């Protein structure tokens, strides 16, 4: 088990175990540390708290105006109190309100629920792979859903597959069947309706016969009774003091709280009615609480900092009362906006620069408050809550005469650029609160703090062997020194991008001299746990961060560079001068059919490290990804005119042979995979390379006006539509290593976090043969070709069980663990510490570094951190590809050899999402993939809804730059 000291060091930041089965939320036992008790009833009103309540009511009224401005439906509509009927439901025959005509128009609420999210993309967050185990939503469960500020209560009828997505069929008390996504669900009460009754309801939009009609009438009756019960409790509960009890004591810091914790504050023994009431109040108070996604799994809220709450309240109050400070700011800002816009237009094709301001701009304190408010509003928001920034932002934009018909985040970003707050190349993703520095700065407090700790650990007191370790102490000696296997002069190839810094994996091959055709494939992985104990403060920080973050011109690594590249430690492979490099080596014995027939995990020493780029290995293997159409340059560009020349290191003949043998064996392994699995999805990927910008210009300074001009030069735009030789070879070895790590843990009784992934679910099993003919020689298909055959694409999950992972070739019962990136991913670090304990105990592990309970908590925390990193990466990538297209369409693209935009040019798109209508658009909006450009777009069409997989012609229309940048197109029939 985890030592006491380690438990205290690591447990201090892990959230309490989140119950992923919502049914047990109200049965959760009280924690040992009792939360603050709040009165169930309010104290008698005083002059002071009456004033606070008046202000709160004003703020809530102002928030409600947002929905009117965006033509939204009422935020919370109790189904038995809505405006759809004036009759009393108990005296009305329920079957008369259940639709039986298949052509009946959906209710206003349903249309609003399903409509597009303003100027957001059709690619909703609902489709993201969270890594969390799914909350079971069984048929007959009472559920609550939220989307587009619409809350709906109903009963789950079961799972349906529609438009290649998995959805829920939900029966509402008004008699409609809605089809929300699982991520729309915020509350689940299992076994609300007996299975026998729910089965008789069916899954169709309208009942097929009288038996289904009668069953639905009974379910509607029970649902309305439940809603009345929940409404009474929601009206009675009092939560005025909750924010003060749970906010961070530091005014500028956010906090986090779970629904269960708050429920125990307001009532001693919370039941499901209390849980629902607390959740409802917190969802309806976005000024103070932000639902933490994915909410159904977390059941938690981020608590806004006191500073941000006061900022929002201030600007909302000014907006509400028409405060002259807003008009004064607008009058001052308008000439600045016009002047900046003209200068940026005139210098668009010049190099980027920050100039001394020709005219000094003095922002007063009120101006700074408004600008800070606008800057804070630039963050991704999912519409299961109101956005408290919306109303004031819209008012300010209109005062500044922004001409867009549907004001949104892209207009706000454009405004801040023209105010001189942001550079024209400002990337919104790097200024989110999860990113400690928006660009590389050797003097940033975040970086200096890590380097100082590293220096102290390297040069300070070194504890003797067996002495307890402090939070800044490394191991006195390598714990695995006596059991390390020396691989001698075996060549180990560290293959990565030429610009990669954290080199944490190498590969090698060892033939077995028995003429059986079998060989050992070794994955030699960096071994920071030879130095770093889990109690070290840098280790704890790494577990919090989750993984390294990568941006165009800098990265946020898990560990400081003084440790990563220290020649004595040799964490990054190839950096340990004159000494063998320590590794954790995962070895798979591959037979002549490509199957894994034996495995080993050893602490290793490697001596002959060859660092080589992907491009150089492709040259050695005579594989040209451009000639084979795997990499394309649809816009041309400098590298299309003059292809890059990659240096090929002079390798001995036997090492070249070893590389080619590795490739041959990994292709054999891939053939084995194709014999046992159907298809691997390869999403098209567009990528850009962009030149430098002035240092410091990506860091926004709201209190000072800065004069920018020009724009960075684009160096390249590529679309990758498949796997190359070198990257495919490395990927296969890493997949084998993950299987070996899981199997070794099973052999030694080690609890281990694994990742599972089901096979793709097809609409018709008969289509398997069609797909086998369409897939590539490596078993891959582009997503747009595969989508028409798919009922639902699976999502990965972290689990302690050795479940199957279809894409990696892991069978059920052996599992797949992440073990190959300990320098970049905290989960791999945890796996290494766990395996280390087994390597020190040859018999089945008597003591492990981490207990199953700790691992169960960590897999949730890591999955959430990983999800945050994925969203930042998607935001960053889409910003730069969208910026490229925007500059190309506007004739402002800096870069040699790129083509010129023809506004009449048509592109072929493939419908990927049926979408819906947006509040500001008269036309329907569909999600489309454009293979030639490697992009997803939002396409307007005046015709009928199109089918998934349907090919269409489209013309580019607009680009919206924001936290989730989108490219708009119009359908050309």
UniProtKB/TrEMBL annotation:
One of the record's GO molecular function terms: RNA binding
Q: Name the SUPFAM superfamilies for this protein.
A: Nucleic acid-binding proteins
Bias-annotated ranges (Polar residues): 21-35
The record's SMART domains line, in alphabetical order, gives: RNB
Q: Where is the RNB domain?
A: 484-841
One GO term of the biological process aspect: mRNA catabolic process
Q: Extract one GO cellular component term from the record.
A: P-body
Region spans: Disordered: 18-50
- The protein's name: Ribonuclease II
Q: What is the lineage of its organism?
A: Eukaryota, Fungi, Dikarya, Basidiomycota, Agaricomycotina
């Amino acid at each position: 088990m985890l030592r006491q000291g380690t438990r205290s060091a690591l447990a201090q930041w892990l959230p309490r175990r989140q119950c992923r089965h919502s049914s047990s939320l109200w049965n959760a036992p009280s924690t040992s540390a009792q939360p603050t008790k709040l009165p169930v009833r309010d104290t008698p009103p005083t002059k002071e708290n009456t004033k606070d309540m008046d202000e709160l009511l004003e703020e809530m009224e102002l928030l409600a105006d947002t929905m009117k401005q965006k033509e939204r439906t009422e935020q919370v509509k109790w189904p038995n109190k809505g405006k759809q009927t004036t009759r009393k439901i108990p005296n009305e025959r329920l079957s008369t309100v259940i639709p039986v005509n298949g052509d009946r128009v959906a209710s206003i609420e349903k249309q609003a629920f399903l409509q597009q999210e303003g100027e957001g993309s059709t690619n909703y967050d609902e489709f993201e792979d969270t890594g969390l185990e799914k909350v079971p939503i069984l048929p007959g469960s009472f559920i609550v859903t939220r989307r587009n500020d619409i809350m709906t209560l109903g009963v789950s009828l079961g799972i349906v597959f529609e438009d290649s997505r998995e959805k829920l069929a939900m029966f509402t008390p008004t008699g409609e069947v809605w089809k929300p996504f699982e991520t729309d669900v915020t509350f689940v009460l299992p076994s609300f309706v007996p299975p026998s009754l729910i089965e008789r309801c069916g899954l169709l939009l309208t009942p097929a016969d009288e038996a289904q009609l009668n069953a639905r009438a009974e379910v509607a009756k029970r649902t309305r009774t439940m809603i009345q019960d929940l409404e009474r409790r929601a009206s009675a509960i009092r939560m005025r003091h909750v924010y003060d009890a749970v906010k961070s004591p530091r005014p500028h810091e956010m906090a986090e709280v779970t629904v269960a914790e708050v429920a125990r504050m307001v009532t001693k023994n919370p039941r499901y009615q209390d849980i629902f009431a607390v959740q409802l109040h917190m969802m309806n108070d976005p000024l103070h609480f932000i639902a933490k996604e994915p909410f159904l799994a977390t059941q938690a809220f981020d608590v806004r900092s006191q500073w941000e709450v006061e900022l929002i309240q201030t600007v909302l109050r000014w907006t509400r009362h028409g405060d002259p400070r807003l008009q004064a700011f607008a009058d001052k800002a308008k000439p600045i906006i016009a002047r900046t816009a003209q200068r940026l237009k005139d210098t668009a094709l010049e190099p980027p620069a920050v100039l001394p301001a020709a005219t000094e701009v003095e922002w007063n304190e009120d101006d700074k408050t408004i600008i800070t408010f606008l800057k804070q509003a630039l963050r991704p928001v999912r519409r299961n809550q109101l956005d408290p920034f919306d109303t004031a932002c819209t008012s300010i934009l209109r005062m500044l005469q922004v001409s867009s018909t549907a004001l949104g985040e892209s207009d706000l970003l454009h405004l801040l650029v023209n105010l001189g707050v942001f550079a024209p190349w400002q990337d919104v993703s790097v200024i989110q609160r999860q990113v400690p520095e928006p660009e590389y700065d050797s003097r940033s407090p975040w970086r200096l703090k890590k380097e100082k700790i590293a220096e102290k650990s390297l040069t300070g007191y070194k504890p003797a062997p067996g002495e307890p370790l402090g939070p800044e102490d490394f191991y006195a000696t390598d714990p695995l020194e006596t059991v390390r296997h020396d691989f001698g002069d075996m060549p180990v190839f560290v293959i990565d991008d030429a610009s990669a810094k954290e080199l944490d994996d190498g590969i090698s091959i060892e033939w077995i001299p028995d003429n059986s055709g079998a060989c050992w494939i070794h994955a030699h992985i960096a071994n920071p746990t030879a130095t770093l104990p889990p109690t070290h403060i840098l280790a704890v920080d790494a577990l919090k961060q989750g993984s390294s973050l990568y941006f165009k011109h800098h990265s946020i690594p898990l560990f400081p560079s003084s440790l990563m590249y220290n020649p004595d430690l040799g964490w990054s492979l190839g950096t340990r001068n004159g000494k063998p490099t320590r590794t954790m080596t995962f070895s798979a014995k591959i037979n002549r059919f490509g199957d894994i027939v034996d495995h080993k995990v050893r602490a290793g020493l490697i001596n002959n490290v060859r660092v080589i780029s992907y491009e150089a290995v492709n040259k050695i293997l005579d594989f040209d990804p451009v000639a084979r159409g795997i990499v394309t340059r649809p816009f041309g560009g400098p590298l299309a005119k003059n292809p890059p020349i990659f240096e090929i290191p002079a390798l001995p003949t036997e090492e070249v042979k070893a590389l080619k043998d590795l490739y041959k064996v990994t292709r054999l392994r891939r053939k084995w995979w194709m014999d046992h699995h159907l298809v691997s999805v390869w999403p098209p990927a567009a990528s850009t390379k962009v030149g430098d910008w002035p240092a410091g210009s990506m860091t926004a300074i709201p209190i000072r006006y800065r004069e920018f001009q020009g724009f960075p030069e684009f160096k390249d735009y590529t679309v990758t539509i498949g796997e190359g030789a070198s990257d495919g070879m490395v990927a296969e070895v890493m997949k084998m290593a993950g299987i070996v790590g899981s199997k070794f843990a099973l052999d030694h009784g080690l609890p281990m976090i694994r990742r599972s992934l089901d096979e793709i679910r097809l609409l018709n099993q008969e289509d398997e043969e069609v797909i086998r003919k369409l897939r590539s020689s490596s078993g891959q298909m582009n997503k747009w070709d595969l989508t028409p055959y798919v009922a639902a694409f699976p999502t990965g999950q972290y689990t302690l069980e050795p479940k199957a992972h279809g894409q990696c070739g892991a069978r059920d019962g052996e599992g797949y663990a992440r073990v190959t990136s300990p320098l970049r991913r905290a989960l791999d670090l945890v796996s290494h510490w766990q395996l280390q304990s087994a390597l020190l105990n040859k018999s089945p592990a008597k003591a492990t570094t981490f207990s199953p309970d700790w691992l169960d908590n960590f897999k949730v925390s890591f999955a959430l951190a990983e999800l945050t990193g994925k969203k930042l990466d998607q935001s960053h990538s889409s910003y730069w590809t969208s910026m490229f297209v925007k500059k190309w369409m506007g004739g402002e693209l800096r870069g040699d050899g790129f083509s010129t935009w023809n506004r009449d040019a048509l592109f072929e798109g493939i419908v990927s999402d049926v979408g819906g209508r947006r509040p500001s658009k008269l036309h329907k909006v569909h999600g489309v993939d454009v293979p030639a450009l490697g992009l997803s777009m939002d396409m307007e069409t005046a015709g009928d809804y199109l089918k998934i997989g349907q090919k269409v012609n489209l013309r580019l229309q607009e680009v919206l730059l924001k936290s989730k940048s989108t490219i708009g197109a119009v359908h050309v029939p």
